[in-house]
Here is the input.
Amino acid sequence: VQLVESGGGLVQPGGSLRLSCAASGFAFDDYAMSWVRQAPGKGLEWVSTVTYNGGSTYYAESMKGRFTISRDNAKNTVYLQMNSLKPEDAAVYYCNAGALYWGQGTQVTVSS
Here is the structure.
């Protein structure tokens, strides 16, 4: 089982990033997929979840209207489009499959 996040980096406040999480080794389309983040010195914070078929999506309140989660089951990949980024969005972003399998994370830094 492998989940590999990518797409993180340094962005200015107000900018955008698109994170990707490529999955392998399990039945990707059987699992809801989520993004979770961890800011320096803080605990894990749930960001967003998409159901197994992409039919429903859920967001933490502070991300609504700015972040969009999606998935491509043909590519075994889940995405997180992040717009209007704020300094407080800076964190390591992890994807997980049903909270069972986790990636290694990708760093997002929001700074001018």
